[in-house]
Amino acid sequence: MKQKIGIITGLLIVWLALYSNLEVITDFLVYSVLQLERTSPLTSVIHFFIYEVPKVLLLLTLIVFFVGIIRSYFSPERTRTILGGKKLFAGNVLASLLGVVTPFCSCSAIPLFLGFVESGIPLGVTFSFLIAAPMINEVALVLLFGLFGWKTALLYMFTGLLIAIVSGYIIGRLKLERYVEDWVYQIKAGHNDLAEEQRTLSDRIDAGIESVKEIVAKVWVYIVVGIAIGAVVHGYVPEDFMASIMGKSAWWSVPVSVLIGIPMYSNAAGIIPIVQVLLEKGASLGTVLAFMMSVIGLSLPETIILKKVLKLPLIITFVSIVGTGIITVGYIFNFVF
Amino acid sequence: MVSVKVLGSGCAKCKTLNLKVQELVAKNNLSATVTKVEDIAEIMKYGILSTPGLVINEKVKSIGNIPKDEQILAWINEG
């Protein structure tokens, strides 16, 4: 254990040294080693790429490690216990917050949904969880923070939470239980006591390392490709290119972005470097965030998975309420900034 | 004969875990039957909320992750 903490402290120091000197290292590589001309667009593309890729990967590794440790305290089983017996609204708030920290994969959406509903958690509260969990995740937050700063990351998190809370609350109020497939209520879930098992700090650090391996291995390609596309656009596409299509003056751009986003399926890592470029070339923040929320929060594949347990009217209600929430957030951002 | 069940329908990790357990059993000549449970009602009986689940002699051993080889072997040998 002591040895483990020692290694991690050492790695943190290396991390800090690298991260705080990235600019200097990039300048050295681009101007001294490669001897590229300072003013050419190609240099700007290469500089952007060499600087952004390690920066985002470094941030991702660090955050995923700590989030992995935090998540080891929140198994879905424990989250269910916490949510048991909670009323609407308070339950929606809690479920959305827990959605952020509970490990979740959309491939497990069905057992999770069944387990929640079976144990008596209200439908609306379950939905708050299912909306927040994919939309607000550590990968999205890290990338937003790294590329746009902490204000955008926080805004994304808060508006995402708001959408999850309000949408879940409305779904709860509409009393749509009859649109859940009938067999769902016949499920008899068993109990196992594995979830309450105590884990040591050393286990949790291992969990952090595991999630770094798993997530970084899964998303690094998206990040590199996304940043490469971003770098080229950064160097060659004129400023304000996107302004007329996705700028503030185009009022219809928010709903259109959301509609385009729904059938698209990508994880946050793939979509954010693209988002960065759209912003840089004159698209407005609200429009771009709405697009991003719609791509990662309202994806068609996930709704198809949910079709197994929900009847069509409930699916349509769910997509419309969340879609409306995202559009509203988009307009508010465009109005405020 | 130890009964080993891998719970999970679609997820990528579920397939990985199933293959891994099959391989471990074959390689070490263990007397165990490995079944993959894909029926959701059946899966829910074990009270798990994320997949894959690993069940050995009807006891849930792990949920939502792929345990290390040694750990799986130890569980099977105990069972």
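qc> Residues 76-183+236-336 of chain A form one domain.
qc> done
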